[in-house]
Specification:
By secondary structure, this protein is mainly alpha-helical. It has three domains: about 160 residues, no CATH class; about 60 residues; about 240 residues, Orthogonal Bundle (MetI-like fold), CATH 1.10.3720. It contains 24 helices and no strands. Helix 12 crosses helix 15, helix 15 crosses helix 24 and helix 19 packs antiparallel against helix 21. The radius of gyration is 35 Å and the shape is flat.
């Protein structure tokens, strides 16, 4: 006789599985709002495998980007919108578009010239000029050109059905893809919604309307523009007002004139401070006998970065000396050292201050984005206005471009310190200074060192650009090589700049290998 004793553990597990399944179904109903049974079935199929599971969603295929946008899947919606717009544009161009419009415009332009040449030919024949043959050849050439363009226009017009068919094939393919991936993409959003209920769910009417209007307008505008090129000026060119630009230029110039006049003492003070540091470093690097500087640099790299880096530094210095770049390399090293050291001295404390003050960091983030993304030649304009040309202006330009990574990575490193470690230190009586110097900074040091490295490398990238506003050094050699296509000089001077940056980076980071 079989033992029919019920295992309590198995019964409990079965009940838990049933409860989980019921809870999942209830969550799916809440999330999708429409056709819950359909989505429960398909979500179970998709969730049963870690791989992509194709299913078929007719509504997603029919409405395409509108369905994805209404469901909140905007990354999918915009991608499909671009492809569908291309398909509809091809269909509209093939069926209704004036494919020969550009060719006919070229013919109209040439016909004006042809008429002029015919008049010149007639006048030459009437006057018996010796240029009759030249005018006749010009007329014949233009007529042949018009004939060729007209044949091209006829060929383009005949391609309309092919273009429309291509668009239709693209549309069918993208609709099939939309139908296949819709449930898989929505199930992924459902999984995110389970852990974060603030994610929008269901199909709100406002989202349906917005998605529909947005998609239809975008596709319609694209179809009209490409099907009837040049017909609507508003679609071809942004409406501009020259007076706005002129007023803006006057306003910017007035602001900078006011700043230069009223901030003269302030900018002179900054220039004086930079000049002091730069002159001191140039005095050390350039005026001191080379054997002393080379020995000090090799010793310093040995103490901070180890024997191997000291050997490399010696080789780098020998390279620069033997090729005649020593004085310019030392000038560049002074310029790099001034810009990098000022960026680090300002950037690390600023990052430490911003790391625990989110509002302040949010305030300075757009400023750092501007500093890092604005082309160097643009912010050189106000720098020259405030500081003139020369080495101080070059240092300021280099600091603007290269000073942001050390701030960002200092903030990142300090925010990455585990709260549990900080709480443990506080529980043992650590004060703020001890917490900063013995806990936060040591744990954040890899990120801070990476920021220092990036600041030095970006400062290196500005050496050649800074030479345009009077900075001496190796940048001049590279700039001269660019002007006269002197490949050898440019490459050799470029390696010298690289070696200067590597030496400075190893000394500043101070990490033995």
């Amino acid at each position: 006789m079989k033992d029919e004793t019920i295992n309590p553990l198995e019964d409990t597990e079965s009940a838990a599985a049933i409860a989980y399944a019921e809870e999942r179904r209830a969550n799916i109903r809440t999330f999708v709002r429409t056709s819950p049974d359909y989505y429960i079935s398909n979500f179970d199929r998709v969730g049963a495998s870690a791989r992509f599971t194709p299913t078929f969603n007719a509504m997603a295929g029919l409405f395409g980007p509108i369905w994805f946008g209404a469901r909140g899947l905007w990354s999918w919606a915009l991608s499909f919108l671009i492809i569908e717009a291309l398909a509809f544009v091809q269909i509209a161009r093939g069926l209704f578009g004036d494919l020969a419009a550009d060719a006919m415009a070229r013919i109209s332009s040439i016909e004006g010239t042809l008429e002029l040449r015919r008049q010149q030919l007639a006048a030459a024949i009437e006057s018996g000029s010796d240029r009759v043959d030249a005018f006749q050849r010009a007329v014949d050439g233009l007529e042949a050109n018009i004939g060729g363009i007209r044949a091209e226009a006829e060929a383009l017009a005949a391609e309309g059905p092919t273009i429309a068919l291509t668009g239709f094939i693209i549309l069918v393919i993208v609709k099939a893809v939309q139908s296949t991936v819709a449930n898989w993409a929505l199930e992924a959003r459902f999984s995110d919604w389970l852990s974060n209920k603030s994610i929008r769910s269901g199909l709100p009417v406002s989202q349906i309307v917005f998605s529909s209007v947005f998609m239809v307008v975008m596709v319609a505008v694209a179809m009209v523009h490409y099907s009837f090129p040049g017909r609507f000026d508003l679609l071809s060119a942004f409406p501009t007002e020259p007076d706005i630009r002129l007023v803006s230029i006057d306003g910017v110039e007035a602001f900078f004139n006011w700043a230069v006049v009223n901030g003269d003492a302030f900018f002179d003070g900054i220039t004086y401070g930079i000049r002091l540091i730069l002159d001191a470093l140039e005095l050390i690097f350039v005026s001191t006998p080379w054997i002393v500087i080379a020995s000090l640099i090799i010793l310093l790299t040995w103490l901070t970065a180890g024997v191997r880096i000291a050997i490399y530094s010696g080789a780098f210095l020998a390279y620069m000396g033997l090729l005649g770049f020593w004085e310019k390399a030392m000038t560049t090293l002074a310029l790099l050292g001034t810009a990098a050291c000022l960026s680090i001295v300002i950037g690390i404390p600023l990052g430490m201050f911003a790391a625990r003050r989110p509002r302040f960091y949010r305030f300075i983030q757009p400023i750092m984005d501007f500093m890092q993304t604005m082309p160097a030649f643009v912010f050189m304009i106000p720098v020259i206005a405030f500081f003139g040309t020369g080495k101080p202006a070059a240092v300021v330009t280099t600091m603007i471009f290269g000073g942001t990574p050390v701030v960002r990575l200092t903030v990142l490193g300090l925010r990455g310190v585990p709260d549990s470690v900080r709480e443990a230190a506080i529980s043992f009586g650590a004060n703020k200074w001890y917490l900063l110097t013995k806990v936060d900074l040591p744990l954040a040091s890899p990120s801070i060192r990476a920021g220092i490295n990036q600041t030095i490398m970006l400062s290196l990238a500005m050496v050649v650009v800074a030479s345009l506003i009077g900075a001496k050094g190796l940048g001049e050699d590279v700039l001269e090589a660019l002007q006269y296509a002197n490949v050898g000089q440019g490459i050799l001077a470029g390696f010298s700049i690289l070696f200067c940056a590597m030496i400075l980076d190893r000394i500043v980071q101070g990490q033995k290998n």
